[in-house]
Amino acid sequence: MRETIHNEVRKIIDKAIDLRHRFHEIPESSFEENRTSHLIVRELQQMGLDVEEKIAGTGVATNIKGELSGHTIALRADMDALNIEEKSSKPYASKHKGFSHSCGHDGHIVCLLEAARILVKLRKQLTGTVRVIFQPGEENGTGAQSMIDAGALGDPLPSAIFALHAWPHLESGVVASRPGNITSAIDYFSITVKGKGGHGARPHESISPIISISLIAQKISALTNNGVNGRYPCVVSVGMIQGGTAPNIIPDHASIQGTIRSLNETNRQKTLEKFNKAVNKIAIQQNVQVAIDFIKYGPPVHNNPDLYHLFEKVSEHLLIPEKRAYITQQSMGSEDFGNYTQLIPGILIRLGMGKSSPPLHTSKFDFCDKSLDAGITILVGLAMKATENDFKISTT
Questions:
Q1: pLDDT per position as a tens digit, 101-151
Q2: Burial of 257 (0-12, 13-18, 19+ CB in 10 A)
Q3: Which domains does the chain possess?
């Protein structure tokens, strides 16, 4: 099977690169992935597959049924892009002003599409069914749950689910993972501060919410730590501050939004407690009213140990040693794939972009074409093995 998979990947790799460039040109925001999903549907239909469209708005899914009976498993890719203007001179740079695939979802899509193409060709050897899922809205943290609620996983539920994510911290084409939690929990917060507005010439007659917001931003950002001296790691980041309508007017209200990331539920509760205390202390000191809203929550991605061991076996069988690695630390980053792993066993696999790659979520990031080969190969191999009847998941 090793040579069969490698031969099939070699046949389609040039097409895969061209297709990745086409997706890269048309980045779209969360739940607005209309051109993206249309192109996905067209590719799947050309493979002869029956396609389910408009799941949770723009989601897409299909089943690849093997000719032998076995388990049903799922493979998932996210589709949305970020509101970041791309800085690139490449001929396939974003054609959608203000948006770019700066998190690599264009590569995720193509790894899954081409894995599906190969699995269709290998139907005679495929045991069971592979559920292929293209998900909207990962970047705003609600896409996975929306797809779950809309029945995207199918009925019955798959016995396992797999996903890839581009990772600049690994050499290109290297796959890596770890058992247990691989990403962190995330809470999105919004704080509204109510003060007393007035004339910019007489600030003593006002209570400026802008000053309070600036103090809150500093205080909550200072909660971030790397876990040294026995402290637990957490990351509090401010992403938005809004307030005021003119430079000579002190407003009544101002607001701040951001994220809190924590390793697990215990650490999360400790961080939230410190967060609330810090904000309320400033409110008392500054004589303002505050409203703290936690807009949404995303759990950590938990890699099932049995699926991790399967990943080790498959990657050892299909990839040379230089293309395999082990992740030692849980990332403080987050991924809504955690919503799936709360429901069914799953695993998220990192796919190296090269250590010279620009970071994710930046204007110069571009998915590495040289990594498509390994991404497609590992997805096909995992699907072929996880659907086999003798593969069992005994732990969570």
A1: 999 999 999 999 999 999 999 999 999 999 999 999 999 999 999 999 999
A2: middle
A3: 2-183+300-386 (3.40.630.10), 185-297 (3.30.70.360)
